[in-house]
Structures
1.
Amino acid sequence: MSSFFGQSNTKIHYRLIGKGECIVLIHGYLETLEIWNDFAEELSKSYRVLTFDMPGHGMSDELSECNSVEGMATIANEILMHLEISKAVIVGHSMGGYIALAFAELFPSSTAGLCLFHSTPFADGEQKKSNRMNEIELILKGEKKLIVEDALPLRFANMNLMKFRSEVNRAKAIALDISDGGVVATLKAMVSRPDRNHVFQKANFPTMMIFGMRDNHISLDVASDLANRHKNTRTVYLNNSGHMGFIEEKGQALVAIKSFLECVFS
């Protein structure tokens, strides 16, 4: 079911498929819910799967010039309440992981489990903040295409670029269709978000992190540090993935997610 949820005179596009316990898949930067289509379809054979377009992305209206990860987490919670779903496992890809963490912190009673998929709980460092502000300047100059052409191939492991050429091109097409205002608003949200390592430390629900061994954005050193820091969190490494494991190693990623869901809902 694809539908719209009204919020403050704007409409947020969401899709709900499948039956059973609920899992929410939150897309990342320069993505829309479409990026999850194949993965969500597989999960929907056993679970109810909710995806939604962030404000200014896909078919969702823009909310403001600056979104916040807390605001987007609140939207996810309001959609769940609208659908009368009391608890869900929250999975966030990349930037979606920042929103998933905010959701778990703000709405712990609605969080059955938390999974970061190619994401970290760290706040942006100064260099990362500077990079994001540079991207904002490029977008305001009408140069979003340059960002997309540079950024999207880096999300796949270098060795996978030819194998997943059509998926890279599809990801580019999705990104180019996002409004400039939507992209700028999410960049500002990422710059302003806090560190949320404490969410893992205080969680009273199961948690998991999934990393790609060949990720151009999250080094193995960072992944290992997080695994050591949060020993009660299940950590999965995808051997042949970059930053898009649900595409690059869909089968292995599904096994990891389904195993986690079985643990959560057992």
2.
Amino acid sequence: MAYQGEIFALTTSFLWSATAVIFSEASKLVGSHIVNVARLFLAVIFLTLTIFIFGLYKEVQLNYDQILFFSLSGFVGLSMGDTFLFKALELIGPRLSMLLMSMAPPLAALLSFFFLSERLSLLAWLGIFISTSGVAMVAFFDKHNNEKFNFSLYGLATGGLILAKKGLNSGIINEFVASFLRMISGFIFLLPLLAIAKKISFGKNFSLTSKAAILILVGSIVGPYLGITFSIFAINNSDVGIASTLMSLSPIILIPVSRLLYKDKITIYSVIGTFLAIIGVALIFLRDKF
């Protein structure tokens, strides 16, 4: 199917936008670090069930490179990335953190050129630049929309995606199995990191309210389970730079959501940023037509 990777990438962006709303509310109830660990744990369970129910394990013929790259991808993108982003949110705030995160797509495209030999057309580069500029404008200037959702959506997206694509290029592998390898390694590395930092404790004071449990459950299905798996489908069927750009549109998608749920005003920066993002996405889809 034409533009399969791009469609998966756009769908991922919508899934991560929904995850932002759900996990933001859950974090208010039990804390972001509890949510971070619980989402990966539940996603591992969902992926394990999917792999066994649909018999995907029968197709598994893993090699050393795949195990290495997907494990490193989970460590970089889901463990270290989230930990660093939480610290960035604490030190420099959500607006600057999201602005820096919006720089991931062009960096991903540049790194994929050197490490994956992926070459993009001039029109594709222009689309990435314009779309990223629109997202950056919303992330930096439209503070009301972004400060509602001040937790990790992407992790260290660039390094994680590059390593995941290296794993995909190392042999044939089902996307759900690839996502499982990323997720389990991310969870294994994240738990001791937070325990050492004393950011999470499962002692006698640990509890989940029923509302928080439901939010975390739903968010884990929408985000880590479907969102991260769809991101694997996206980079497996498209260039990393293109997929990364389309998956970074959550701040744009969250504008009407923030308006409906939190009565935030739609500013001129929101309008201009959205307009730029749409132009950039259009150029990306039209990159091979000229």
3.
Amino acid sequence: MRRSRPESQSTSPPLTPVEFHILLSLANNDRHGYAILQDVSERTGEQLRTGTLYTVIKRMLDGGWIEEAPAPRGETDERRRYYRLTPVGRDVARAEALRLQSLVSLAQEKRVLGRGRRLAAERAR
């Protein structure tokens, strides 16, 4: 099922996990599609399918969250398309990160997660 966002919600969270991971992948570096796939896989331990990636990239391009970037100097493969975050995309990523941070805080308040040192100890295991 194709997910589309109404224009009024084009920058509103919640995002799908794939959308958020792509935005995170582009947060500090311009990347081509395969590099995005590798970055997401390294971070999550899961393989993102190329069809899913390019469907979401198209939607993000159309929504103005990302844009094509020039290839880096020395890039010889003309088929590669590089992408970068736009200011709108950075705002979308920030809004989603804040939303998730708020949910984690709520989970801590509800004692679903530990607090402070106990949470750090759980992460270290």
